Amino acid sequence: MKKPTHKIYRTTNWPAYNRALMSRGNIAIWFDPATQWYAPSKGKQGRNQTYSDAAIQCCLMIKSLFRLSLRMVTGFVQSLIKLCGLNWTASDYSTLCRRQKHIDIAINYQKSSGGLNLLVDSTGLKFLGEGEWKRKKHGPEYRRQWRKLHIGIDAETLQI
Questions:
Q1: Residues with Cβ within 8 Å of residue 128, at least 6 apart in sequence
Q2: Is the pLDDT of residue 80 over 80?
Q3: Which of 39, 48, 49, 90 could form a disulfide with 77 if both were Cys (CB 3.0 to 4.6 A apart)?
Q4: Pick from 115, 124, 120, 114: which is nearest to 146 by CA?
């Protein structure tokens, strides 16, 4: 019995293909210049806080969204502030570490007005590791590893 031939896909529109690949990594984060980034003076004895709770919460939200360490968050937020053209400074990691104990991270979400139409998909994900090349070259030694992933998507807003 003859093996079926594999289809060969050729890219014919390279500029569109390159733009599509670049847009996959596009991220847009804006800072409102009217945001009170620095904490106001409380008029009490002792040293005032340098950064407002909104600034700390913003840094901690970026930390949880991108799964970064505190030192990486400091650099990431500082580069975002620089790209926005603001003359703010990002808080250092020790300030974030101290203040994260007292601030709850609130990641906003959009509520639906009526009933929720939920689309559920269940698919398999294959684990790739260092042995993938060896398995292609010498054949499988053990069973391939698959995990099942369940995804729920709102039908109206397409939020996952």
A1: none
A2: yes
A3: 90
A4: 124
Q: Which helix (H) or strand (E) holds 95?
A: helix 93-99
- Please check whether residue 160 is in contact with residue 151, taking contact to mean a CB–CB distance below 8 angstroms: yes
The pLDDT of residue 121 is above 70: no
This prediction's pTM:
0.53
Q: Are strands 146-154 and 118-126 parallel, antiparallel or unpaired?
A: antiparallel
- CB-CB contact of 81 with 88 (8 Å): yes
Interatomic CA distance for residues 3 and 137, integer angstroms = 19
Closest CA to 148 of 119, 125, 128: 125
pLDDT score at 41: 86
| Torsion angle, alpha carbons of 54, 56, 58, 60, to 10 | -150
Q: How many helices (H) and strands (E) does the chain have?
A: 5, 2
